[in-house]
Amino acid sequence: MKPVIIDKINEAVKKIIQTGTWPNIKLPAFEVNYPVQPEHGDYAVNVAMKLAKVLQQNPMDIGELIKENLNLDGIERVEVVRPGFINIFVNTTFLAGGVRLILEQQNDYGKNNSGNHKKYLVEFLSANPTGPLHLGNGRGGFGGDVIARVLRASGYDVISEYYVNDYGNQTNILAESVMRRYLQNQGINVDYPEELYKGDYIKELAKQVVLPDVKLGNQAAMLAIKAKVKDQAVQAMIKQIKELVTRKLNIHYDVWKSEKALYENDAVKKTLAWLKERGLTFEQDGAVWFNSKKFGDDKDRVIVKQTGETTYLFSDILYLIDKFEQRKIDYWVCLLGADHHGYQGRMEAAVVAIGHRNKMQIIFTQLVRLMFNGKELRMSKRQGTFVTLEELIEDVGLDVVRWFFLMHDTNTHMDFDLNLAKEHSDKNPVYYVQYAHARICSILAKVPKLAPAPLQFTNSSEESLAKILLRLPELVEEVSKTYQVHKLPQYALEVARAFHYFYTKSRVIEGETVNRTRLQLVQATQLVLKNTLQLMGINAPEKM
RNA sequence: GCCCCGAUAGUUCAAUGGAUAGAACACUAGCCUUCUAAGCUAGAUAUGCAGGUUCGAUUCCUGCUCGGGGCACCA
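YS: structure for the whole thing
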C-alpha cells in the first residue's frame, strides 16, 4: 500500500464527477490538504467554493460517496465540515501498513519514480575561479546539491554540473593581479591598480607561480608571462575549489564544464554560421548581434564585439547548444545569485531561439547579508573582504552550515549573523534532529534483532509519529517539482519533535520486555531521519 | 526612470486562497532511581500602509513606504 493518499482522493473525486454523481463542477477547483490538527482529521481535502456549496447541501452523502470510491484500506470515516473541508479519518490499520512499508523499503523509503528517467542537468554554484568561495556561495552550492539529490531520489537522470568560467575578462584581471604580486615578490617595482583583486589569496597564488626564464622589457615578453601566470593561477584556483567542494562541502558534481573548452574546434566560426543560418543574428556597428528581442528579451545583445572578441552571452549560447543539441538533455535547472537576474531575459530568449522553449528553469537565490557585531559586513572579492566558506565550516562545522543555508527559502533574503552562528552553533536545530537520531540508535543498540510483528498502537504519541513518517515520499516528490529545499529541514524538525515527544511518553524497553510496535516505529523513524538527512547531505550520527 | 526579490512575535525564519498564522533563539516556571536532559511540559508577543478581487487574503491584483539586487560591445 502506498502511503500517498492524495492521488487516490483525486481519483475518487474525478470518478464521482465523471459518473455524474455530482453536478458538473470544474475540476481545477479541487485541492488537497495535509493533516493540520488531530481534531481536524488525518487527511483533509480542501475544495473551492463551488464544490463546497454542493457539499453543504448534502454533506453526509458526499462523504459516503468519497469513502466508497476511495477504495483504500484503513479509512475510518469521512466527514464534511465547514465550507470547503472534507476530513478523511484513517485508522491504525492504515498507519500500520505505512510503517511496514518504511521497514520494507529501508534506504529507498522516500524515493519515487515521478522523474521517469528524464535527463536533467542541474547547474549550480559556478563561481568564477578568481577567488575562494565565500559565504554567499553557500546558498547556491548547498541548494543546488540538494536539488540534484532530490531529483535523483525522484527518478530523474541527473547531471550535476559546475560551469567553470575559465575564459574571458575576469580571468584576465586575476592574471594581472597575480602577475603584479609576483613581480613585486621578485623585487620589481610595479604599481597595483585599484581594480585588481586585493585578497591575501592573490599573494598565495603569486608565491606558487613558476616561471623558468623571466625576461622583462618588451611587451611581447610581458604578454607571454601573463599568459603563463593566467594559466597557472586559474588552474590553481580551480583545483582549490574542487578540493574544497568535494572534500569539505560534501557537494557532488558529475561534470566540471570548462567554458574555455567550448571554444575548441572552431566553435566560434561554426556556431556563428549555425546561428546565421537560422536567422538569429545580424551585423551592426561592426559587431554581431543576437536577435534576442524577437524572442522575448527587452533588447538585442552583442555576441561578437567590434574587436572580434566574443561576449559572455556567446559563451552561454555555445553552452546551450552543447547542452541541448549535443548532450540532448531534457531540462536545464540553473541556480543563480540574485545579482544575475538581469540575465534571465536573454537566456530565455536564447533557449527559445535555438528551439527549446520551456526547457529551462532559473532559480534565483537571494543574496546573503553578512552581519558582524551588529553591522552589515560588505563582502567583496575585489576588496578582499569576505568570509570564506572554508573558514565558516572550520568554525562551526559542515552540518551546521548546510542546515543553516538549507533551512530558508532560497527566494527570501537572509541575514547571516556571524556572532550568532558561532555563539549558538550548539543550539542550531540540526542538533535537535541529529540528537533524535542518536537517541534512536542508542535504543536499537540495546535490543536484539526481532522479526516483524503486527503493529498495535496504544497511545497518541505513537500514532502522531507514524502519521508524520508517512509523509516523506510525498514531500520528496513535491520538492523535486518546486525546488523548495527548505521543506526538507522543516520536515526533519517535525519528525524529530514527534519522536522526542514519543520518547518521553512511550518506552520501548520496559524491564525485560520489548514493545514490538514501538520498536518498529523507532526503526522506521530512524530510517526516515537518516534518509531525510541524507538528502540534505547532513550526517546522521549514531552517538552524540 | 525601468526590472527582479523581500517586509509575519524582541530576533532569525515557516505557512498549495481556508480551520486557533507555526517553529527556533532569547525570557519565566516545572520535569532525570527507568532506552542519551543536546530532551519534555506549561506560559506572553506578529501578518509595513491604503484600496481591490473573494463566502474567505499572510498568500492574488493595484498604489504607497522602507530595504536588497539588477539595468554593458563586464563576467
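YS: worth flagging: The CA atoms of residues 178 and 204 of chain A lie 9 Å apart.
IM: good catch. Also The radius of gyration of chain A is 29 Å.
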